[in-house]
Specification:
The protein has 481 residues and is mostly helical. It has a single domain, classed as Amino acid/polyamine transporter I. Helix content is 70%, strand content 0%. The protein is built from 20 helices and no strands. The two termini are 25 Å apart.
């Protein structure tokens, strides 16, 4: 199928002379950036005990099935990026296809989902680094010092440029993935050889209801969704990727596929390495505990290193991607225009990058110092996957609407651009509704607060900044505004 030509769309803000660096990174580096956003080792550690408990050890089917709607929605991103490759991505796609006001809220959810998700991993960085040096200190000063040093270091790298960011991500990612997959294989061998203390694999591991039918697939899907979120990061650097209209979408789909393999192997390989009781008793640091059970304290430090690298990587890309989304929105003047400026020397949106870094630093300090607010932060962190689900759904709908003529033109396009995206959006919508039905009131109010702040900012943008963006008429393929 031929690649769609880009739509001509005059900038709604001032046309800036300095742009992001084009053709700076390739598809492989972009794929690693998308995977780093999801933080595979850190996410595998966070979901290891929870997913095993929720699904009654049917973790493999939950992860594999969750990968299917993610791949389908990643293809929606790919198709929309063929049409219009820009850092704002879903913000602009939804705004130009469905409604500008909905597009703004999607952009806001993208920013908040990225920042909250990054904070959720950053706050576990200190203990991971200290564990490498044989310390289990929970004191605030060392944890605060480590988090601050990492955020500032990754902020400097993000400001300097996308090339050094990509190289750093590839280096850390390779070490992280080797450590995680290596331990997963060792764990799987231990389980299959019936090593003392392991939990044996049974047919319940491969059923949809788990061992003894005690698993909840819907609860497992929500946990799995949290692990996958972030692959869309490949698209937010599209203006800096070689073949910017083609490669970011390919990278998104490859990121989902690779994560599906990594998560499934890691979960199946590690969840049975210790007994269920011990796994749940050590749920907060399950992946390091399992590594210690498999190889002793020395190998536990190696796993802690992999976990630390994963958190450092996701902190770095969290800064970069958050800045790119803000830059994309500011370029349309729905955010203060100075956030859309690009530094001539580094070809990066320095103001937007510093803003994201400062916000991350402030939230991390607040989390570690204000113990009275920890529960409030945890409620925010718990709704991260729901934020992602919301804008994934809207992006899938935008793809269906934009390509609606193709949907009704032939069977293949109807399936790929219509039926499958609608099914994926419906599936995520079902998870969203089920989660909200059982969510504590604090989490629901957290979501209300996030959307409410976004709506307030939208009104400020509409009536104070007065961008042309809010006057756009809906577009579809073959029908420009």
């Amino acid at each position: 199928m031929a690649v769609e030509s880009p739509a001509t769309f005059p900038a709604t803000g001032s046309q800036l002379e300095t742009k992001l660096e084009p053709n700076a990174i390739g598809v492989a580096q972009d794929t690693v950036i998308g995977m780093a956003t999801a933080a595979p080792a850190a996410s595998a550690g966070l979901i290891l005990a929870g997913l095993a408990a929720a699904t009654a050890y049917a973790s493999g089917p939950a992860l594999i099935l969750m990968a299917l709607p993610m791949i389908i929605i990643a293809n929606c991103y790919r198709r929309l990026n063929l049409w219009n490759a820009n850092c704002g991505a879903a913000f602009e796609w939804v705004g130009r296809v469905i409604n500008p006001y909905v597009g703004f809220l999607v952009g806001w959810l993208m920013i908040m989902g990225g920042i909250i998700g990054t904070v959720s991993t950053t706050v576990v960085l200190g203990p991971s680094v200290l564990a490498v040096f044989g310390s289990n200190s929970t004191a605030v000063p060392p944890n605060l010092g480590i988090d601050t040093a990492v955020i500032l270091g990754m902020l400097v790298i993000a400001v300097i440029g996308i090339r050094i960011t990509a190289r750093t991500q590839v280096g850390m990612g390779l070490i992280e993935y080797v450590i995680l997959i290596g331990f997963a294989i060792v764990g799987l061998v231990a389980v299959l050889s019936h090593r003392h203390g392991t939990f044996p694999i049974t047919k319940g591991w491969w059923s949809l209801s788990g061992i003894g039918g005690r698993g909840s697939l819907s609860a497992g899907f929500l946990v799995a969704l949290f692990a996958y979120t972030g692959w869309d990061g490949t698209v937010y650097v599209n203006e800096e990727v070689k073949h910017r209209r083609v490669n970011p979408g390919r990278a998104a789909m490859m990121a989902v596929a690779f994560m599906a393999v990594i998560y499934t192997v890691a979960q199946v390989g590690l969840q049975g390495a210790v007994s269920p009781a011990k796994l749940q008793a050590n749920a907060s640091d399950a992946i390091v505990y399992v590594a210690q059970a498999l190889g002793g304290s020395g190998w536990a430090k190696v796993m802690a290193l992999g976990l630390a690298l994963s958190v450092i990587a996701t902190t770095g890309v969290g800064i970069v991607l958050g800045a790119r989304v803000i830059y994309g929105m500011a370029s349309h003047r729905v955010l203060p225009p100075f956030l859309g400026n690009v530094n001539r020397r580094f070809s990066t949106p320095v103001a937007a990058t510093i803003l994201v870094g400062v916000v991350l630093l402030g939230l991390t300090w607040t989390y570690l110092l204000a113990t009275s607010l920890v529960n409030a932060f945890n409620d925010l962190i718990d709704v991260t996957s729901l934020l992602y689900a919301a804008f994934y759904i809207l992006t899938a709908l935008a793809a269906i609407i934009y390509y609606w003529r193709r949907v009704f033109s032939n069977f293949l396009d109807g399936l790929i651009l219509g039926v499958l995206p609608l099914a994926a959006a419906g599936f995520l919508g079902w998870i969203l509704v089920k989660s909200l039905q059982t969510a504590p009131a604090a989490q629901i109010w957290s979501l209300v607060g996030i959307v409410g702040v976004g709506a307030a900012l939208m009104l400020i943008a509409r009536f104070v900044l007065r961008p042309q963006f809010f006057h756009l008429r809906p577009e579809t393929e073959g029908r420009m505004r």
